[in-house]
From TrEMBL:
Residues 132-153 are annotated as: Disordered. GO terms for molecular function: carbon-sulfur lyase activity; metal ion binding. Belongs to the Gfa family. Residues 1-113 form the CENP-V/GFA domain. Keywords: Lyase, Metal-binding, Zinc. Coiled coil: none annotated. It holds the Pfam family GFA. The lineage of its organism: Eukaryota, Fungi, Dikarya, Ascomycota, Pezizomycotina. It comes from Lasiosphaeris hirsuta. InterPro entries: CENP-V/GFA, Mss4-like_sf. This is Mss4-like protein.
Length: 153
């Protein structure tokens, strides 16, 4: 699958032919990042993309923001048009996760079926009643024990 930013300066292939998972995140950070009601992230293995090639690295800017539980998030943007391309989480000990979240809107031919909704407690739009959803973060994403598991709003 091809990744392409709005101006076309960024263009590369996803590490695999399909994402591991697809999430619509309704948290306030993703709403700000996407300038919309939610942000969409397609999770892919980082291997095959990271470490970034020198050519791709030269076209991106990285902003690192704090995340919960001592983690940080490296957020990558196109230097020319400013479109968010992807982000990767670093654990509190500095270790990078083995996955990368690529923003859904930059992936050509992405299949949007089966997207899961997370941080639904902050949702400002209706979530389809049959959608898989969590009030905060699913267990697979490594949240705190009291927030784990599927919850229905």
């Amino acid at each position: 699958m091809n990744i392409r930013c709005q101006c076309g300066s960024i263009s590369f292939q996803t590490p695999t032919s399909a994402p591991i998972s697809l999430y619509h995140c309704h948290c306030t950070e993703c709403r700000k990042q996407s300038s919309s009601a939610f942000g969409t992230s397609a999770v892919f293995p980082a291997q095959g993309l990271f470490p970034l090639s020198e050519e791709l690295k030269s076209k991106l800017r990285c902003w690192t923001r704090p995340a919960k539980e001592g983690r940080t998030m490296d957020c990558y943007f196109c230097k020319d048009c400013g479109v968010r391309i992807m982000h990767r989480i670093r654990e509190a000990d500095g270790q990078e996760r083995d996955t990368v979240s690529i923003k859904g809107g930059v992936i050509q031919d992405l299949c949007w079926d089966g997207a899961k909704h997370i941080y639904t407690r902050s949702a400002v739009v209706e979530i389809p009643p049959d959608a898989e959803r969590w009030e905060t973060t699913p267990e697979i994403m490594g949240d705190r024990p009291q927030s784990r598991g599927q919850a229905r709003d």
